[in-house]
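stage 2 :: seqdesign
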């Protein structure tokens, strides 16, 4: 084993280089910052946060049976709307099988996170928003992930995943 000289600071990288002759591995991607000033990925603005919370609460209301799924038709494309409708049907059937009262009380939204991806440097253009939320149900906490993409002058939900 080779010992590093005293005048150089000893780090894991210098020890790995001295002992193996190869440079130390790069830090994992999770340790590197996700957003940099030149990156097109940024945290969502307050208006984006409000929109994401509104959409997440609307999904929770549909799942709880307090809102008809067609109320989401203006904001959702067909595939994610069908996913929400199917999940609401499964939740209704599960409630009937377990003798849980249906519709549930309005589900509470615990948290919501938004990440904006800008396609252009122009920040006036609508970004693609990747959102996730946690909702509290009678059977525990559920996760919802959805994507809002620009469609003309507004954002539409193009994908949704419900845990």
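stage 2 :: out
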């Amino acid at each position: 084993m080779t010992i590093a000289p005293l005048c150089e600071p000893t780090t894991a990288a210098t020890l790995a280089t001295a002992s193996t002759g190869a440079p130390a591995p790069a830090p994992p991607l999770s340790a590197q910052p996700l957003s940099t000033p030149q990156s097109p990925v940024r945290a969502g603005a307050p208006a984006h946060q409000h929109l994401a919370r509104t959409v997440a609460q609307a999904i929770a209301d549909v799942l709880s049976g307090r809102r008809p799924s067609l109320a989401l038709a203006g904001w959702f494309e067909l595939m994610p709307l069908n996913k929400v409708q199917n999940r609401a049907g499964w939740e209704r059937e599960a409630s009937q099988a377990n003798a849980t009262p249906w519709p549930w009380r309005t589900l509470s939204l615990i948290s919501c996170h938004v990440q904006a991806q800008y396609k252009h440097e122009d920040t006036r253009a609508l970004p693609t928003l990747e959102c996730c939320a946690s909702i509290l149900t009678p059977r525990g906490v559920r996760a919802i992930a959805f994507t809002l993409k620009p469609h003309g002058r507004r954002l539409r939900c193009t994908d949704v995943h419900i845990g």
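stage 3 :: structure notes
- The chain has three helices and five strands.
- The first strand starts at residue 41 and ends at 43.
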